[in-house]
């Protein structure tokens, strides 16, 4: 494993951990299925996700 591979692995892990990769996947899916609809900003996406989680709690205890 080279240093470059290690850095890529760490970058991938941090993006998954912070949710950056999730936003990128969402944007790619939106572009593919709804190409003419404008993409939400990261802030708008975060608000959308928060509202979704609060309205549909999916088995959380609290």
UniProtKB/TrEMBL annotation:
<protein>
    <submittedName>
        <fullName>YbdD/YjiX family protein</fullName>
    </submittedName>
</protein>
<dbReference type="InterPro" id="IPR007423">
    <property type="entry name" value="Sel_put"/>
</dbReference>
<dbReference type="Pfam" id="PF04328">
    <property type="entry name" value="Sel_put"/>
</dbReference>
<feature type="compositionally biased region" description="Basic and acidic residues">
    <location>
        <begin position="41"/>
        <end position="62"/>
    </location>
</feature>
<feature type="region of interest" description="Disordered">
    <location>
        <begin position="38"/>
        <end position="62"/>
    </location>
</feature>
């Amino acid at each position: 494993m080279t240093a470059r591979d290690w850095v890529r692995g760490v970058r991938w892990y941090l993006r998954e951990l912070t949710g950056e990769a999730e936003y990128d996947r969402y944007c790619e899916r939106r572009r593919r299925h709804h190409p003419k609809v404008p993409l939400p900003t990261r802030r708008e996406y975060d608000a959308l996700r928060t509202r979704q989680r609060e309205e549909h709690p999916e088995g959380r205890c609290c």
